Each structure stands twice: as structure tokens, then as C-alpha cells.
């Protein structure tokens, strides 16, 4: 079985090839390693292989890992990418650097109010239900503009962009469609002067399609840590 370091090398090659195809600088794509369900030792291996940014889905599990790796905290960036309930916002505001899954004003307001003053603003993305799936979390595309304008006015958070988990699609062309739709949504917000720089899209199965459509953060779990 390949080691985590070997897997990271392969993912980096996939990102580089997609950037070359898209005519993009490889530095314009950030690799976020999704470590959910894997122990802190696996994260440590990824750190030894050069990664510094990690994504967690579950608040409690994430906070435990952040604690287990507290000695490295200054070097690391922790991103919450899973659903967030309002009774968990305080611990998230106190421990994480980013939240990708904001889909309600109330959550963003609480994160802003609860962000400790000695920390930099919490970096936020709005999660968009870009494929229109009934069961998926995320805000409807039509509602993004109003939420973005409201969140961008909060003092202790900084709205950076949009995040989506598109429905799986079989072929490469079909994979690109929802990613393109998310980029077009971001472009529309930026035409209104919101100054957003982040498109969090693309996972193990579709990172190439996402990069071709402008992803700036790809969230990769399985290809780095193995099957969950
Ligand atoms: C689990 C997860 C990922 C990583 O998915 P892989 O297919 O394992 O790469 C990315 N984003 C979110 C929101 C996830 O929940």
C-alpha cells in the first residue's frame, strides 16, 4: 500500500497536470487535506510530507485533533468543511481558521460574535447547493447574493468565497458543469464589488474538473489518507 507521502505526491501531480491543462499557475490552487475519520498520527505524516492545511467535517473530532497537534498550531491551518449547528459555533470560532459550510446568517453572526479578539478574523465560505439536490446542505444559488452581502458586513469574520459539493457525475464534461456554475456565481458577486478570491470545490473524484473551472481550494481526503 502506498504511504501518505506517496499519495500526496500523486495528488500534487494531478493538480499540476490540471493546472497545466488550464493554463493556470500551480500556486493558484491550494491543497486542503481532508483528514476526517483519520487519527492525528495520519495528519502528522501529512505534515511531515509538507502539508499544512487540513479539513475536518465534525466539530468535536476536529477540535480533538487540533488539540493533539497543538504544538504545531502556528504552522497549521484548520478548516471546518462539514455542517455546523448553532450550538457548536463557539468552539469553532475559538479553534478553527476557516469555515467552508456557512449557509445561514445566524451561523455567521454567531461565529463573528464569538471569535476571540486576539485571533484574526475567521475566514468564511458560503456553501451553495449548486446541483439543487433536495437532501444536500447549502444555500440555493438564488439566495447567495443576499447572504453574501449580509455576511460581508460582519466584523470578526471575513467572507472569502463559495464552496460546493456537486452531485457525482460520470464523465469529465458533466463534472465541469456545476463547478462552472459556482464560478459564475462568484464572478457575479465580484461584479458587485465583494472582492471574493476563493472557490472551494473539487474532491478526490473531480479535482481536475474543478481546477479547469477555477477552483482555488481542492478538498482531498481519500486520495491522500485512503478509504474511510
Ligand atoms: C469528505 C469530504 C471531502 C473529501 O472527499 P474525498 O472524496 O475523500 O476526497 C471534501 N469535502 C467535503 C465537504 C467532505 O465532506
TrEMBL record:
Pfam families named in the record: Ala_racemase_N
Modified-residue entries (N6-(pyridoxal phosphate)lysine), positions: 36
Domain Alanine racemase N-terminal: 8-226
Keywords (A to Z) from UniProt: Pyridoxal phosphate
Taxonomic superkingdom: Bacteria
Protein name: Pyridoxal phosphate homeostasis protein
Cofactor(s) of this protein: pyridoxal 5'-phosphate
Similarity remark: Belongs to the pyridoxal phosphate-binding protein YggS/PROSC family.
Function of the molecule: Pyridoxal 5'-phosphate (PLP)-binding protein, which is involved in PLP homeostasis.
Molecular function, one GO term: pyridoxal phosphate binding
Gene3D superfamilies in the cross-refs: Alanine racemase
SUPFAM superfamilies linked to this entry: PLP-binding barrel
Amino acid at each position: 500500500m502506498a504511504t501518505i507521502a506517496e499519495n500526496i505526491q500523486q495528488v500534487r501531480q494531478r493538480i499540476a497536470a490540471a493546472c497545466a491543462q488550464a493554463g493556470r499557475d500551480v500556486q493558484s490552487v491550494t491543497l486542503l487535506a481532508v483528514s476526517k475519520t483519520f487519527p492525528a498520527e495520519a495528519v502528522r505524516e501529512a505534515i511531515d510530507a509538507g502539508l499544512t492545511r487540513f479539513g475536518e467535517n465534525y466539530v468535536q473530532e476536529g477540535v480533538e485533533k487540533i488539540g493533539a497537534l497543538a504544538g504545531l498550531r502556528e504552522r497549521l491551518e484548520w478548516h471546518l468543511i462539514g455542517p455546523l449547528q448553532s450550538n457548536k459555533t463557539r468552539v469553532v470560532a475559538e479553534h478553527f481558521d476557516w469555515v467552508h459550510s456557512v449557509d445561514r446568517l445566524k451561523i455567521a453572526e454567531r461565529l463573528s460574535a464569538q471569535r476571540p479578539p486576539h485571533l484574526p478574523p475567521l475566514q468564511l465560505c458560503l456553501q451553495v447547493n449548486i446541483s439543487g439536490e433536495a437532501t444536500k446542505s447549502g444555500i440555493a444559488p438564488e439566495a447567495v447574493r443576499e447572504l453574501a452581502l449580509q455576511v460581508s458586513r460582519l466584523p470578526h469574520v471575513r467572507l472569502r468565497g463559495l464552496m460546493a459539493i456537486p452531485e457525482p457525475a460520470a464523465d469529465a464534461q458533466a463534472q465541469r458543469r456545476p463547478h462552472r456554475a459556482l464560478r459564475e456565481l462568484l464572478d457575479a458577486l465580484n461584479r458587485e464589488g465583494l472582492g471574493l478570491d476563493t472557490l472551494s470545490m473539487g474532491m478526490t473524484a473531480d479535482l481536475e474538473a474543478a481546477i479547469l473551472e477555477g477552483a482555488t481550494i481542492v478538498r482531498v481526503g481519500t486520495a491522500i489518507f485512503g478509504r474511510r
